[in-house]
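Chapter summary example.
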Amino acid sequence: MKKTLLIGAGLAALMANPGAAWGQRTGENAVASAQDAFGTSVGNERVGLYSPFSARGFSPVQAGNVRINGMYFDYQGDINQRLTSGSTVRVGLTAQGYPFPAPTGVADFSLRLPGSEAVASTVVGIGPFGGPRLEVDAQLPVTDRLGLAGGMGANDMALYYGGTQRVLTSAIVARWRPSDNLDLIPFWSMQKESGGGAQPVIFTGGAYLPPQIQRRRYFGPEWAQNEGEDVNYGLLATYSFGDWTLRGGAFRSIARDHRNYSVLFLGTTPEGEADREVVADRERRFASTSGELRLTRQLIEGDRLHLVHLMARGRMQDRRYGGGQRYDFGSGRIDEPIAAPEPEFTLGQQTTDEVRQVTVGLGYEGRWREVGELSLGIQRPFYEKAVVRPSGALPVSESSPWLFNGTLSILAGTDLVFYAGYTKGLEESPVAPDFAVNRGEAPPAIITEQMDAGFRYAITPALRLVAGVFDLRKPYFALDPALFFRELGEVRNRGIEVSLAGQLTPRLSIVLGAVFLDSTVSGDAVDLGLIGRRPVGSIGRTVTGGINWNLPWVEGLSLDLAFESSSDRIANTANTFVIPARYVASLGGRYRFDLFDSPATFRAQLASVNNPYGYNNIGQGFYYNPPRRFLMSLTVDL
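The structure predicted for these 638 residues follows.
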């Protein structure tokens, strides 16, 4: 978002540049576009330490901290790239001047909006494992105040663990400005997925990793094919009158899983023998209606700008899950497919849960030119959750805490800024994974707290260094030894994060980031020795980087390097063994040229050049990492 004295980050975003113009995709480049190393996605590319699903050891999406063009959105169905041009993760200094921040960080998605010219962008690609894809996005200015945009995509996505998934995406966006002070943006999108086999998850019988098995081969039953669809639609509106601005967003998000499978290898031995089970679910549905209304008054006092925000948010979330069946296919090897006919399925009784939440808040932002910024906020959510299991209704969970946030940044010269902040929030609990005994279950919302501080230094006008420390605390949910997902204590994530991003030269852009995380668990389960003091899946060090070099002797040609290095990952709740450290590097290039007088970009990338073999984990279950792969695409703006 832009930062201006007269309007400010929160207001300028939609009226001045509310999203990327649809079409003109030949210029998409995540490294060249990133302002820091804390997580930026542009089109099909992502760069930085964090993503909407992982930030400072937690997930902004899972915590319920998602925004669309800055407005609160309760994420249920996946947001596809026909609808959005990318996303930005806002933590630390990047959350300064952002009204009502959240402890786990905010994932802000930007809509693709119609521009002032008629453009059709076509992307034809192949990879990463040979699957073809086609994307067509177009925009049409109907009048000088009304524009339409739409897109469709088809992808036969070859999966790195074997098999192929068909993904169809579509979206349409309109932007209508009936007057200079009113902006209306309705949108709709859908994503359909079919044919993708369930990824096997391996549980070992002791403190050891599974044996190495062949990658790119599917070891689940051929009939365990997932099928579902995601739908998102809504309306964004902005109305300005004098010193006042009224912004609103209303959204509907739906995820439907018509068929969902989990393939489990349990008690796996070092030799690769395991008990093989498949969990089948049908007709799961997760839906939410959400929105935000924010009234802002701006007051200008010489070099000082004052912004006062009055906010109301709400959501009505309804989830239906469970009623599945568990099939035992006996003992077998994890590197041999389960060759068994599909059993007859009977849907059992399902669990339903409903969340009703309304949050009201008052916020203040003060900005003093060449001095600093102050942001304060107070919120009061009114939260209620009702769960009805087949065995009966659970007690209704209610919460209405007072929540506070405050941030301060001080300019220590023209190039140096110091910042500090505190945020207390009510966030969503993690959802039980598909292989848990209580799979799909979502515990009530939890209180979370965050403190952070740091600095930003402009080494040059085009190159910035950001460094900071953070401390987050929240209840700890994980699988217990019986694979039941429940609260096991409190987790505290303390860390140091560093970002260096910008241009070293006009032709050389870099995005370098590092986070050093000290993640600990406390509580009765730790004191009794049931679990270790490190949360399962935690990583002590992560370093990422992206470099883009526009070659001086061939106009339009650039080369890029991406890499990620991580330290050991905690492999089980008892902390008795780890997944070893791993390093991955990718090489690529793009060539921009004219194809029949139309801008075009040819993109190629060899990902995971060094092709390391290792495992990742979901709780105490393991799956291997993707092997070396090749991606290639041609983008043309017509």
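To summarize the output: The mean pLDDT is 89.
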